[in-house]
Amino acid sequence: MSETKQIVVLAGDGIGPEIVGATRQVLDAVGSFEYTEHLIGGASIDEHGVALTDEVIVACKDSDAVLLGAVGGPKWDEAVAKDPTAPRPEQGLLGIRKALGLYANLRPVKPSPALIDASPLKKELIDGTDLLVVRELTGGIYFGASGRRDDNGGTAYDECAYSVPEIERITRAAFEAARQRSDNPRVLSVDKANVLETSRLWRETVKKVAEDYPDVQLDHLLVDFAAMKLVSSPAEIDVIVTENLFGDILSDEAAMLTGSLGMLPSASIGAEGDPGLFEPVHGSAPDIAGQGVANPLATMLSAAMMLRYGLGDGEAADRIESAVDAVLEKGLRTPDIYEGGEGETRVGTEEVTAAVLAELAQG
Ligand code: IPM
Ligand code: MG
Asked: Which amino acids are annotated catalytic?
């Protein structure tokens, strides 16, 4: 990666600025980047009255990649509780995903061997888990018509719609990702085809696309059963492809295989050549914001995904991932993953960041 890359940084709310600040240091240790900071979520609501401005969308479109922290917090939830029409921080996140056309959300789940005891699940169950959730991110119930009707004392509705092209492109993204991951690629398509019409179209379309990928094994599961499989035999799963809402739920469930939501990175990708957006799966953790104890590792691992998928520098991505592994191996733990076991040291954001930087300086 020769020339300086332009990164838009959307730190957001809560612990966002802390984890993104830590991650910038790590990025600077592996490459040359120019950062432009912009507001999103609650921070943008406070300044501009909306969770996302057009100016930020334009800046993101002009960038090479977008690094995002997290959005949301009690302050804005309270405002919405008082007035349901008040702006919500999450609108910023959904808005930028939609505006950038980021239809494919990749959430890899590979428990670090050093953290295997941090998971609430039995070690022998998690052993060998290395899966990828490919979540459709710009369609479905998240973006359908929604509202309230004044009948029967009040009714609310959220429409879920999927078009064939929307299903085709996310399916292709999943098959391609599966091929890249291994020589024995498997895709598990998750739906609710026994109930939902969108799911029946989903299944039909996935099957058709699969004809172009005869080397990839395809299976289908209903989402309730898939939720069970995810905790009963996660090591059997390779790539999951699913719609927006199921992917949201299943990826949080899958996160617990790693012991902490604080460890999970994600990449959101759109059309070829367009900037992607990279963010940790966890939220803004307002309860610990500003205390210097936030776990920045998921954001650093998201930066690694940014290098690999967004900026074409797999080597720098490997370096960050190895440095994070090494730091965990040495027993450094932010409170969210601290178990009090032998060889563990409880540290804050600054110390864990310094340790990652030290590993990078050595390697
Ligand atoms: C996620 C989050 C978001 C989502 C929220 C904050 C809108 O849970 O990225 O998984 O539901 O997509
Ligand atoms: Mg979620």
From this structure: 142, 192, 224, 248, 252
Question: In CATH, what number is assigned to the domain containing residue 165?
Answer: 3.40.718.10
Write out the two tokens for 192.
Answer: 């609710």
Say whether both 88 and 158 belong to one domain.
no
- Say if pTM beats, i.e. exceeds, 0.90: yes
Q: Which residue shows structure tokens 């050093």? A: 114
| Residue 131, C-beta contacts closer than 8 angstroms, at least 6 positions apart | 108, 109, 110, 234, 237, 238, 239, 240, 254
Instruction: Render pLDDT for 196-250 as a digit per residue (tens, 0 to 9).
Output: 999 999 999 999 999 999 999 999 999 999 999 999 999 999 999 999 999 999 9
Q: What is the number of the ligand closest to the CA of 249?
A: 2
Dist. CA 200–CA 191, nearest whole Å: 8
287: three-class secondary structure by DSSP? helix
Q: What is the pLDDT of residues 132-189, one digit of tens each?
A: 999 999 999 999 999 999 999 999 999 999 999 999 999 999 999 999 999 999 999 9
At 94 the three-state DSSP class reads helix
Residue 279 CB–ligand 1 contact under 6 Å: no
> Does 105 share its domain with 41?
yes
**Cα 230 to middle of ligand 1, angstroms:** 19
253 lines ligand 1 (CB under 6 A): no
Which structural domain, as residue segments, surrounds residue 275? Answer: 1-111+260-363
Determine the Cα angle at 304 with ends 229 and 180, to 5°: 55
Angle, alpha carbons 1-36-350 (nearest 5°): 85
Phi, psi (rounded to 5 degrees) for 273 = 90, -15
Q: Is the CB of 90 under 6 A from ligand 1?
A: yes
Q: How many residues does the chain have?
A: 363
- The answer on 170 and 79 residing in a single domain is no
